[in-house]
Specification:
Blueprint lengths: L17 E4 L30 H12 L4 E6 L1 H12 L4 E7 L7 H13 L1 H12 L4 H17 L1 H17 L11 E6 L17 E5 L13 H17 L4 H4 L1 H13 L11 E5 L5 H9 L4 E6 L2 H10 L5 E5 L2 H7 L5 E7 L8 H11 E12 L5 H9 L15 H11 L2 E13 L2 H11 L14 H15 L2 E13 L2
Parallel strand pairs: 1-2, 2-3, 3-4, 4-5, 6-7, 6-9, 7-8, 9-10
Antiparallel strand pairs: 10-12, 11-12
Helix pairs in contact: 3-4, 3-6, 9-10, 13-15
Length: 488
């Protein structure tokens, strides 16, 4: 039995899996404050520093894991560094959140004294300091996890005391030159001040201005993009079997994009093609028909989508790869392509500029890129309607997509030749329920948003009435940009 890491079976599908080590007086349940939450392995009880190394090794061996990505927070970052220093061959990468170089002896002594006098009172004050700058997260924590932690003080007293011993003795080990490392810190951190973050040569650094000791909870943290992408993946995977029956707009955009591609007989030099975000393979089939002599690499992050695409398009010149697009473009390529295409996928990327730059990098001399991308005005009528009936506190996911000016600027800076064409596609649905069903069945809802009221049947009826009154029926607009880039 592995006491620190339990009920983690659903987390082992990511490669490499990510393991989270929480800070002192917390456990992995802190991740439940995140919506969406990450698909990480985490301990469901407080860590005992004396047992962490043994528990981690037992976990990796028992699950047959060769390498892990390790995310450590506060004391967990210290434990993660120590583990990586001793077992570097097991570490794919390190993300160290709120890492402090060391804890001064007098400070630890003061903590011990206060904690001994009244553990519950001390922890309440400590938790308040940890959540400085994020009142909503603290309120959620105080109402959910804090009562559990305080009720378990007696059970965890030994781990907590061992934790203080560890903090008092910790010294930053020698850096790992071959291990990709990122430091994430909140500028308003009172527990581990940003000025006491250790210098780690070669490590990336991310300082979040308005975040405190738990910067991974802040929306500006880069990890938030990862959490959102995991939820997007889950929705696309659930929608794989229904996608083709409902993705009518995406199919129309695919046809328009295919019409813009150079004809094969006019561009015989197109011998290799990369498709980013192939989904169920509809656009892949168009590529195979248009370029029968070309080698096509089609990738998507959903294994369910890839499985359908393989069954649909079985020609030998197509290689399907299950991979996340941004990561693949950044890290997974050792070859170049004559043509890079993507239909309705890049708007989900966390950094469109970096993605376009990586596409430019992998193009052969004279190669070109053709992509379609949905814009921020997509489904604007739905956004208006939801706001009118006070269903959503925040904007739709589409409203975070890159706009025309941003795309033009990025293309101009990255490619020698570029162009952007805008198109608006109007679509009418039988009802608001039908529109929402299409979004669900295509997996294009994005990540979860904080809501004032759940979208119940009665509220969907209100939305339907709003559409009828405002537009005469349930009509929405999809804003689409067609991007072209060439390096010569």
């Amino acid at each position: 039995m592995i006491p620190s890491f339990q009920n983690t079976e659903s987390c082992f599908h990511t490669k490499p899996p990510t393991l989270f080590l929480p800070g002192w007086a917390f456990d992995g349940r802190i991740l439940r404050l995140l919506k969406p939450g990450p698909s990480w392995i985490y301990p469901e009880n407080m860590l005992d520093p004396e047992m962490v190394e043994q528990d981690l090794l037992h976990l990796l061996v028992s699950k047959g894991i060769k390498k892990i990505r390790l995310v450590g927070w506060s004391m967990g970052a210290m434990l993660g560094m120590n583990f990586a220093a001793r077992h570097s061959h097991l570490i794919d990468s390190l993300i160290l959140v709120s890492l402090r170089s060391s804890w001064p002896g007098p400070e630890i002594d003061a903590i011990r004294a206060e904690f001994s006098r009244d553990p519950a009172a001390f922890l309440r004050g400590f938790y308040r300091k940890c959540f400085l700058g994020d009142r909503d997260a603290y309120t959620h924590f105080r109402d959910t996890l804090e009562p559990l932690y305080l009720a378990e003080i007696e059970k965890n007293i030994e781990q907590l005391q061992h934790g203080l011993d560890f903090l008092a003795a910790f010294r930053v080990p020698s850096p790992l030159p071959n291990t990709p490392t990122m430091l994430i810190h909140g500028k308003q951190d009172l527990i581990a001040p940003v000025t006491e973050m250790p210098p780690l040569p070669g490590a990336g650094i991310e300082i979040i201005d308005n975040a405190g000791h738990a910067p991974f909870l802040h929306e500006a943290c880069s990890l938030q993009h990862e959490f959102k992408k995991q939820e997007i993946l889950a929705k696309f995977s659930r929608a794989a079997n229904s996608y083709d029956n409902y993705a009518k707009v995406q199919a129309e955009v695919a046809r328009r994009l295919a019409a813009k591609l150079p004809e094969a007989h006019k561009k015989p030099q197109i011998k290799t093609i990369l498709e980013v975000g192939c989904g169920t393979g509809n656009f892949t089939s168009m590529l195979a028909a248009g370029y029968p002599a070309a080698k096509i690499v089609a990738l998507d992050f959903s294994p369910e989508m890839i499985a359908i695409a393989r069954n649909k398009t079985s020609t030998p010149n197509i290689e399907f790869i299950c991979a996340e697009g941004e990561f693949f473009l950044q890290n997974g390529l050792e070859k170049s392509f004559d043509l890079v295409v993507s239909n309705g996928s890049l708007q989900w990327f966390s950094n469109i500029n970096k993605a376009l730059d990586n596409i430019s990098r992998i193009l052969t001399p004279g190669g070109s890129m053709f992509c379609s991308i949905f814009g921020p005005e997509s489904l604007k009528e739905l956004g208006e309607g939801l706001h009118a009936i006070q269903t959503l506190k925040e904007s739709l996911a589409a409203q975070t997509f890159p706009g025309l000016d941003e795309l033009r600027k990025a293309l101009h800076e990255i490619f020698l030749q570029s162009a952007v064409e805008e198109a608006c596609i109007e679509k009418e649905y039988r009802s608001a329920h039908d529109l929402l069903l299409h979004i669900k069945k295509t997996g294009t809802a994005g990540w979860k948003h904080k809501t004032r009221h759940p979208l119940t049947s009665s509220r969907v009826n209100l939305l339907d009435e709003w559409f009828t009154k405002k537009y005469g029926s349930c009509k929405v607009t999809y804003q689409v940009f067609f991007l072209e880039g060439k390096n010569s």
